[in-house]
Structure prediction request, 964 residues.
Amino acid sequence: MFKSHERFHSANGKRLVLIVDDEFVNRELLRGALQADYELLFAENGQQALDLMREHADALSLVLLDLLMPVMNGFDVLKQAKLDPAISHMPIIVITSDQDAEIESLTLGASDFIPKPYPQPGVMQARVLKTIELTEDRQIISSTERDALTGLYNREYFYRYAEQYDLHHKGSNMDAIVVDINHFHMINERFGTARGDEVLRRIGTALREEVADVEGMVCRREADIFLVYCLHGLDYGKFLKNTTAKVSGGGAGETHVWLRMGVYENVDKELDVVRRFDRAKIAADTVQGSFTTQIGMYDDALHKQELFQEQLIEDFDAAIREHQFQVYYQPKFDIIPDIPVLASAEALVRWNHPTLGMVSPGVFIPLFEKNGLIQGLDTYVWRETASRIRNWLDRFGFAVPVSVNVSRIDMYDPHLVETLLEILAENDLSPHDMNLEVTESAYTQDSEQIITTVNRLRRLGFRIEMDDFGTGYSSLNMISTLPIDALKMDMQFIRTAFNDGGDTKMLEVIIDIAEHLSIPVIAEGVETHEQMLALRDMGCDYVQGYYFSRPVPADEYEKFVIERKEAGTPDLGNVAHPSDFEKHPFGDITSALSSGFESIFYVDTDSDHYVEFSSQGSRDDLQIETSGTNFFGDALRRALGPVYEEDRSRIELSLNKSTLMAQVKGSSPFSMTYRILEAGVLVFYSIEVARARTHDDHHIIVGISNVDAQVAEAEALKRRQERSITYARIAQALAADYLNIYCINAENDHFVEFSPHGSHEGLGVERRGSDFFGFVRESASATAHPDDLAMLLEELTKENVLAKLSREATFNLSYRRMRQGGPTDVRLKATLLEGESGGFIVIGVSEAEGAST
Amino acid sequence: MTLDDLRAYGADVELGLSRCMGSEELYLMLVGTIPGEEKFAMLETSIAEGNLDTAFEAAHALKGILANLALTPLHEPVYQITEFLRARTRMDYSSLLAEIFSARDRLSALL
Prediction:
């Protein structure tokens, strides 16, 4: 309980003092002596005194306590105050005429004495003030020396005390121990931080008790990490077991905690104290996530590893300076076309160390992530990559984007955006030349901050790929709100899926999620042709892996770029970015096609030469249809089609070259609608014209779209999205063998019945209807066992189901269904899902386990 | 009752006054509560009943007050009886009690 000086004062600026004496005369004498300097409270017995102390626990500066009183005497007040953490910090001066009582009072925690008869008021005042000031000073020191939550030393003092201890115990063998909790954040998440705090307090107390015999001192370094410095000689297993037992049981509820510890025994006292605990922490980390071993010892192997890592850290600066780090490139291929085409690449760093040779990134990247050096390395890679892209553009007039890794720590750098833009500017590149890969776990660990940064990057035109997707435990709901442009499936999924007896279910679910989010999926670690084909069948868009190429140095990778350039197909899909007006007109064409144009013309207005593109279904599959030399003559007319006669003159007037060029002078596209009579029905079309580039008056893009079809398409898309979310959720939420699954719109009772036969790809729509609960009553009457029918009809009302779901999240019902062979036990399970267009009730009906007649 | 009356009575008026921050009014007010103090009767009754615990508590409380007010003629016999009672001495307390009551009555007479 730490108070600032201010809080010792009452409202009128005086400190508050409690006077406890049963005698009127004494109270009045003390009042006379103290009232000028203090705000006073009075109690006539011990019980009243304790009540007032608790009531004013934060405000009382001092208690003056008589010992012999009715109801409760002063000794009992001292004892109880000592036991109550809320008031134990309060200084108490005992007033007594009895010298023997002084000793007992002292041991009970009294701060000082005032004898009876009272000394001169000046003396009394001085002693009161001195006691108050001493206490306040001590509490201020203590508040900086102690961890407020556990009352343990904070780390600075802990290290200092450990040094002090060593100074006076030069011959003692000491152990440095780190204790922490596996998945502590889960305790906070599941039970709330109050419970989490209670667990931490208990650990603190338990540790202190357990190391008392070995002169141990304990501190909380941060969060759930505790440090112990003690004489060598603990039985580590027993120590951990006892501590766990003390923390897990009793008043904090049955919070089971799984502790782990790292021990650096018989520490080297030449080593800085902090470093000793670093070693203990390294040892603790070796058992992280292990459920068989809880104790990690700092041994020779770890020591060698530490020395190795130290060398890497020491060599880092020179490595950057001397360009020992090399950027390798691994191509990513678009596998949707029959012949996969290079879409982009990932920049990967390699370290060619002058004495150690090639150091694996698996070794130095986690190390640099831990100590923050990764930031410098990332910047280095960005810079190298950007200058390489510039080099390709200069030499080939062509390049595909390269993805670079952005570590979690970079996302917290307030200068991240400026650094990236600066590097691009140095090389005269724009954000779409360099995609950014952000690991999924970064999103889940501090999503708000990350999302803010990512949004900013995206607004600037960067494409964000979520790396290692599937390892970071994003929830489906969370994923759908994240700002990302592509999902990169973690390599592990590919490996597992294509192992002997592997299962591709997980891949399919991830691809479904991506489809639902309308973003492409990139598969990493693809090694064979079969894997590539299987992934293509599942709907995966891009593939990276040894099948196409391992990561290779820039000059080797170049051949892919040259091939790609010679293939001549415009660079689309992964490269294209809607805001990319400056460099790639094709990007706009692609995005235009994806927004539903039937045909697109790229027109050179100086010569009237034009190229016509059309899309065959997929947005990535852009084809050159025709080209010609007189756009404003026959091509435009042909493109418009047989315009309905009422619209003809208006269209012809607007679309002559000079009018049109005047219309597109501004930056916003020009558009107008017209009608065509198709099979006796008037169909709406739209023509849009825009400049191909912001500062280019010589090229325009003209697009023609069927508005009616677009509206229909938009609706179909929305339905597809809703279905895919339903599939993914059904697959996750109802993991069981269902006879029927119903998806009911909670608002209007419209429903869809799915039959889950075969793969979920084939999760077929059996039936649609508009009144689910009516349908249920009807079909129950036909199929339910007569004895269960009344119960079913009563339970299966919309009101009842929704009421139960709002209370309990799931709704379960068992009943018997009549089939040819007789009654079958079935179970009905319902859950509530929030979809984009409102709430859904999903109901699954399954055969009960061990079903019999 | 005046300070001079109390001086004549034998009280250490200067000491008593100083404990009252020199306030004559407070001092006289507090001294005025003494003759009516119930603990005198409590002391006498509990001794008569042989209840020396209660008698000690009463004497001890009186001793403290009287010492603080420096009412020496009354404080001295109360101090003596307190020490006997602290040891729970079984003895004849009548002469000490008589001395106490006589001193109290002389104080009452000053009111």
